[in-house]
Design a protein that fits this description.
Layout lengths: L2 H17 L5 H9 L5 H13 L3 H4 L6 H11 L21 E3 L2 E3 L1 H7 L2 E2 L6 E2 L1 E5 L2 E4 H6 L4 E3 L6 E3 L2 E3 L2 E3 L8 E2 L9 E2 L2 E3 L2 E3 L1 H7 L2 E2 L6 E2 L2 E5 L4 E4 L7 E3 L6 E3 L12 H5 L4 E3 L6 E8 L2 E4 H9 L2 E2 L6 E2 L3 E2 L5 E2 L21 E2 L2 E2 H13 L11 H8 L4 H10 L1 H11 L6 H6 L4 H12 L12 H10 L4 H26 L5 H21 L9 H9 L8 H10 L23 H13 L5 H13 L3 H5 L6 E4 L2 E5 L4 E3 L2 H14 L25 H10 L4 H13 L4 H8 L3 H10 L5 H7 L6
Helix pairs in contact: 1-2, 1-3, 11-13, 14-16, 18-19, 22-23, 23-25, 23-27, 28-29
Length: 754
C-alpha cells in the first residue's frame, strides 16, 4: 500500500468514526484497509462521503463501487449502516448494473431493457435470437424443440445442466458444494450467496423466519413492514397496495407489478382457481377462502360475514367460521386456528382482508377516493362518504368503489380539485356514468336537485351531433333547440317530468338522424325524399321509426320536404296480443309459487297477469301504498286500494321488507318497492319489462289477458278507477270482452219512491 493510500484510509476511518458513535477507529481503519483500494478509488470514496453526509444510512444507490464494498463491511457490526439498495425496486441484492448514474439489480435491468418477442408479440426479457429476431425468456422456456429427457429422472423439460454431454434438469443437475458461512458445515449445497458468503438451505430458511408484529406468528413468509423500525409483517396480515390491475382493469390490491408500472391483482396472477367442494354448501366451485371449517366458496364467505351468530363456546356474536366436536359453529378465536381474526383498526373479530375487516377496508378506500391533492376531504363530499360507509353494506360499497364507472369520474374530479356542480357535470361525456354520478350527488346532498331532468339534454345533444355530418347536424340542432326542447319544457312545466321525458327528446332526434343517414346512403336528399322512401325506411326497421312523423311535419311546415305522411304509432282498434286464460293462470301460479324466480319478478309478473298493470306503474309503486285491515292486505294501484290474494299479499309484504333493508341503499330511498341501482330512484321500467319477458312472462300478451278478464266482470268506469286506466282505454277493453253496461247503468239510475 502506498503512503497516500494509507493516509486516505486514516481520513476515511476518522470520517466514519464521527458518523458512527461508539465505533473503534482502529477497527474502522482495518476494515477500510481490508478493501485494498487504490489511491484513486480511496480519493473518490472520501470525496463522496464528504459530499453526502447520509451516505452510510440512506441506502441510496449512488456513489462509487468502493462505497458499496465499504457499507457491506460496516453493516455486519453497525446496525445503523444501511447497505445500498436497488434504485428501482429497493431490494438489497447484487447491483451489477447502472442506469442514469444509479445502481440497479439484474431484474430491474432486464425490465428496462425489454424487447418485443417475435413469438408472443409482448415485451419481455431477451433470452436469445433466432432467424426472426429476439425471443423472450418465457417463450424460450416453453420452446419444446429445446427440451430433452433428463438423464436421471427422464422428465422431458428444459436442459439446465450438461455433464459429459448428458442433459440434466434443474432438480437433478449437480449442485455446487461449499462451506456454509452461517453454520460452518462443509460440503453443503449452496442455496444462496449472501454478503457473508454461501449458505445452505437450512440456514437460508432460518434466516428468513421473522415474527409478525401484528399477529406474532413466526414464519418465513414475511416482508418488511417498516425498514427504519426493523419490523416485519406476515403475508396473512399484509395488505397489498391498491392499484388498477393491468389485466382485468379493476381497482384491487395488487401485490405484483407496482414498481414496473404493470400491477397485477392476486386473482389475475393466480389464474382460474381449481374447483373444490365447499365445506358449507357442498357445491363444487371456485374456493374464495380456506377457513377452519374447510374450503369455502365466495357465496358462503359473504353469508358468514353478513350473518354473525352467537359462538357456542364464548357466546359472542361473530362469524362462525369453524365447528366444535359436536358440529356446532364457533368463531375464529375459538376454533383453534392460529391466524389473527381481530381487525387491526377497530378490534372487531371478523373475516379479515389482510389484517382489517371489510368495513375498515371500505372506510380507507373511501378516504383515499375523496382525499384531494391538498390532503383532506372537501366538506362538500361528506355526503358521499356517509353514503358509502354508513348507508351501504361493506360488500356492496367495495363493489361500487372497485367497479362503478361513476366512481372513476368522481376520482378524476377530486384529483383535479373541481367542486361538482350541474354545469361541470354537463361538460362530462354524456352517458350512464355521468348521469349516475349526478343522481348520487343529488341524493347525498352534494348538489341541489334540478327542478327538471332536462338540463343534461344540452350536453347529450352536443355530443351526439359531434358525430353527425355537418349539414345534418345544423338541421338537427335547429329541430331540437327550436322545436322539441321548448315544447318538452312547456309540457314539463305544466305536468312535471318523468323518467321517459329525456328519452322522448333523444328518440326523436336519433330517429331523424338515422333517416337522414339512410337518404344519404341512397343518394337522396331530404328535399327529394318521396312517400315511397319514407314507407320503405319505416317498414325495414323497428316500430320506433314511426317517431319520424314529428320531424317530417316540422320540415314540411318550413318548406324543407314534401308533404310526407307517417302512420300514427298508437294502436287503433282492439288488441292483437291477448294471452288465453289457461296460459295466464299457469304463469300466475308460477309467479306465486316458483322460488327460483327473483322476488321482484314474481311480484311484478303477478301484478301484470292479475291486474293488467304496465311496467311503468309497477316500477313507481311505493311501500306506503300497502295497507292492512285485519287479515286482509290492500295495494293502491292508483287511488282505490285493491284487495290482494293471500299468496300475493305475502310476496308484496316480503318485497317491501327487503326493499327497506339497508343493503339496498339509503333508508330514505327504501320507499320504492322496486328500487333501482341509482340511490333514491326506482327501477327503470324498460329494464323491468325486459327482465319479465326474458323470464317468459310476456308483458303485452299477459296484460291483454288480464284486462280482458277484468273487463268481462267490471264496468268500464269501475275498471278505469281501480286500475288507473283512462275511460277510453277501459271502454275498448270492455268492447273486446263483449260486455254490456246496461246492468251497471240501471243500477246507477235512481228510482223515485212511490
Amino acid at each position: 500500500m502506498t503512503h497516500s493510500t494509507g493516509n486516505r484510509s486514516d481520513e476515511i476511518a476518522a470520517y466514519l468514526a464521527a458518523r458512527l458513535p461508539g465505533a473503534d477507529p482502529d477497527r474502522l481503519t482495518a476494515q477500510v484497509e481490508a478493501l485494498k483500494l487504490s489511491a484513486a478509488h480511496a480519493r473518490g470514496l472520501l470525496r463522496h462521503l464528504q459530499a453526502h453526509p447520509d451516505a452510510t444510512t440512506s441506502g441510496e444507490a449512488t456513489g462509487p463501487a468502493a462505497l458499496r464494498a465499504l457499507l457491506d463491511a460496516l453493516a455486519t457490526e453497525h446496525p445503523v449502516v444501511q447497505r445500498i439498495r436497488c434504485h428501482q425496486c429497493g431490494a438489497q441484492k447484487r447491483l451489477p448494473y447502472r442506469k442514469d448514474g444509479m445502481s440497479i439489480c439484474g431484474s430491474c435491468y432486464r425490465r428496462t431493457h425489454s424487447k418485443v418477442c417475435v413469438r408472443c408479440g409482448e415485451l419481455g426479457s431477451p433470452a436469445r435470437r433466432d432467424g426472426g429476431g429476439v425471443v423472450c425468456i418465457r417463450c424460450d422456456r416453453r420452446d419444446a424443440s429445446r427440451h430433452s429427457p433428463c438423464t436421471q429422472c427422464g422428465t422431458t423439460t428444459r436442459v439446465a445442466y450438461r455433464v459429459d454431454g448428458k442433459p440434466f434438469c434443474q432438480n437433478c443437475g449437480p449442485r455446487k458444494l461449499s462451506t456454509c458461512s452461517s453454520c460452518g458445515k462443509e460440503n453443503q449445497r449452496t442455496h444462496a450467496i449472501t454478503h457473508d458468503g454461501p449458505i445452505c438451505p437450512s440456514c437460508y430458511q432460518r434466516g428468513r423466519s421473522h415474527q409478525c408484529h401484528q399477529c406474532g406468528r413466526v414464519t418465513v413468509h414475511a416482508r418488511t413492514a417498516n425498514r427504519a423500525a426493523g419490523t416485519w409483517i406476515c403475508y396473512r396480515c399484509w395488505t397489498p397496495p391498491t392499484a388498477t390491475c393491468s389485466e382485468c382493469g379493476r381497482l384491487k390490491p395488487c401485490a405484483r407489478g407496482i414498481a414496473s408500472g404493470r400491477p397485477v391483482c392476486s386473482t389475475c396472477r393466480r389464474g382460474p382457481r381449481r374447483p373444490r367442494r365447499c365445506a358449507i354448501c357442498d357445491h363444487t366451485k371456485a374456493v374464495a377462502a380456506v377457513l377452519p371449517v374447510g374450503p369455502v366458496c365466495g357465496r358462503c364467505v359473504r353469508h358468514l360475514r353478513r350473518h354473525p351468530a352467537p359462538c357456542s363456546m364464548c357466546q359472542r356474536v361473530r362469524p362462525l367460521v369453524g365447528v366444535d366436536d359436536r358440529g356446532v359453529g364457533v368463531c375464529g378465536p375459538c376454533s383453534g386456528d392460529e391466524r389473527s381474526w381481530t381487525c387491526s383498526d377497530c378490534g372487531r373479530v371478523d373475516l379479515l382482508q389482510g389484517s382489517r375487516c371489510l368495513a375498515c377496508v371500505v372506510e380507507s378506500r373511501v378516504a383515499e377516493l375523496l382525499t384531494g391533492p391538498s390532503g383532506y376531504i372537501d366538506p362538500q363530499l361528506e355526503g358521499i362518504r356517509t353514503y358509502l360507509t354508513d348507508d351501504t353494506t361493506p360488500d356492496r360499497a367495495l363493489g361500487i368503489i372497485r367497479d362503478a364507472q361513476w366512481v372513476q369520474l368522481l376520482r378524476e374530479l377530486v384529483a383535479a380539485q373541481r367542486p361538482p356542480t350541474h354545469e361541470l357535470l354537463d361538460e362530462l361525456p354524456a352517458g350512464s356514468p355521468a348521469n349516475h354520478l349526478r343522481t348520487v350527488l343529488e341524493h347525498t346532498g352534494v348538489i341541489e336537485p334540478r327542478p327538471d331532468d332536462l338540463g343534461s339534454l344540452d350536453a347529450w345533444l352536443r355530443d351526439f351531433l359531434s358525430a353527425v355530418p355537418r349539414q345534418d347536424a345544423q338541421l338537427l340542432r335547429t329541430y331540437a333547440q327550436w322545436w322539441i326542447l321548448p315544447r318538452t319544457r312547456r309540457r314539463a312545466t305544466r305536468h312535471g317530468t318523468t323518467a321517459n321525458t329525456p328519452k322522448y327528446v333523444r328518440t326523436r332526434v336519433e330517429t331523424a338522424a338515422h333517416f337522414l343517414a339512410w337518404l344519404r346512403a341512397n343518394d337522396r336528399t331530404l328535399t327529394e325524399a318521396t312517400q315511397h322512401d319514407v314507407d320503405t325506411w319505416i317498414e325495414s326497421g323497428a316500430s320506433t321509426r314511426r317517431r319520424l312523423r314529428d320531424f317530417l311535419k316540422w320540415t314540411h311546415a318550413r318548406g324543407l320536404s314534401a308533404a310526407l305522411r307517417v302512420h300514427w304509432l298508437g294502436r287503433e282498434g282492439l288488441a292483437e296480443h291477448v294471452l288465453g286464460d289457461a296460459d295466464r293462470w299457469s304463469l300466475l301460479r308460477r309467479c306465486l309459487g316458483d322460488e327460483s324466480l327473483s322476488l321482484d319478478l314474481r311480484v311484478a309478473g303477478a301484478l301484470v297477469l292479475l291486474y293488467g298493470q304496465i311496467p311503468t306503474r309497477i316500477a313507481e309503486l311505493t311501500a306506503d301504498r300497502i295497507s292492512t285491515s285485519g287479515t286482509d292486505t290492500f295495494l293502491a294501484l292508483r287511488n282505490q286500494p285493491v284487495l290482494l290474494p293471500p299468496p300475493l299479499a305475502t310476496l308484496v309484504v316480503e318485497l317491501a321488507n327487503r326493499s327497506a333493508s339497508p343493503q339496498r341503499g339509503r333508508p330514505e330511498a327504501s320507499g320504492w318497492l322496486f328500487p333501482g341501482a341509482r340511490p333514491g330512484t326506482h327501477i327503470y321500467a324498460g329494464r323491468l319489462a325486459t327482465a319479465l319477458n326474458q323470464a317468459g312472462i310476456y308483458v303485452r300478451s299477459g296484460r291483454g289477458g288480464a284486462l280482458t278478464a277484468l273487463a268481462g266482470d267490471l264496468p268500464a268506469p269501475v275498471l278505469a278507477e281501480i286500475l288507473g286506466l283512462s275511460v277510453t282505454t277501459a271502454t275498448r277493453w270492455t268492447a273486446l270482452a263483449n260486455h254490456d253496461n246496461a246492468e251497471y247503468v240501471a243500477a246507477r239510475i235512481k228510482v223515485p219512491p212511490p
